[in-house]
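Recall that a protein's primary structure is simply its ordered list of amino acids. Everything else, from secondary elements to tertiary packing, is in principle encoded there. The following example makes that idea concrete.
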Amino acid sequence: MTERLYYTDPYLREFDATLVDTVSHGGQTALILDRTAFYPTSGGQPADAGAFQDVRLLDVVDAEDGRILHIVDRAPSTTALHGVIDWTRRFDHMQQHTGQHVLSAAFDRLFGVRTESFHLGAESSTIDLAREVSASEVERAEDESNRILWEDRPVAIRFVDAAEARTLGLRKETMREGTIRLIDVSDFDLSACGGTHVSSTGAIGIIAVAGIERFRGGSRVTFLCGDRALKGFRALRDAVAGSVRVLSVAPAELPAAIERMQSDAKDLRRQMKGYQEQLASSRAAAFAAAAESVGAVHLVAASLEGWDANGLKLVASQIVEQPGFAVVLLSEPAPSAIVMARSRDVDADAAAALKAIVSRFGGKGGGRPELAQGGGLSAPAADVLAFAREHFTR
């Protein structure tokens, strides 16, 4: 069993330990110590980072037999080790994890909504709630959480046996036996937890809910605490400032300005579609009139500058409404879209021809014998069209 120093002193930044054994874990070197202040991945909280002198710590794993495996980049040259924790990472995790306890307790106390799971990510953290919650409920829970932070309530660590734990009214019942470690946010939350936490709620700084979404019949709440909340505010501030500068509106006017832009863009796309349809009819007629004869087939093989795949498909479809046509249209500049089509009475396979083109020039695509399309072609248009003539009309 490895003595877990972080259980009683999460603020411990350095420690001395004795190397008990060196083993292999997943092909990597793992150190087993008599004691450690490094927290292993557990309970939704990632592992600590740090080093033993010049040996870098890669991961910390909580083994089933009670040992903690310290995955390192190489074996140390001595059994007397001095560990140094990456304190910036550790304190960030302490802020997020204690913030989660407070936020989960707020949802539970205000609305009776249980937290089913917690995940501490690299940039944000989430709690999954047992039912869907409204925006107003989230705001109330956020306000209540920050009230507890600003009162700077003590956060204590307690150890009790399982029988006593069952009498204390924990926010979430624990099924563990033996000695239970409790995190006690004074007069607000009492939970069984093995993670690292700040010593008072004021050290969390602030709890800011960044988003909410439906998840497995409940709600997933994304939140930021402490320094992460500050960085999140700065990112939002810069994004808003940039948008205000580009759109020349006040911050409060941004939603309306974006709605107007979306409406204008929708109208413009509708107009462009109408113009493209008119132009497609003209181009289809011109291509059909200039088609080259390949046996009994009228072949149209051409490139169109500035056209997208939908436009090419529109032109090709109008050409092959007439009998006897095979069509290969390519957009320019590269990477090019390609559309291949044939009239009903023409014995040719557009899908097979496109497969040969993609195999030869790269890109991707597919379709049916009568119509196929693709994209991502970077070869010169003349080379692709020459190859298409050979494989589509033979």
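The chain has three domains: 3-85, 91-234, 276-392. Helices lie at 87-111, 135-150, 162-165, 226-247, 254-289, 309-319, 350-361, 381-392.
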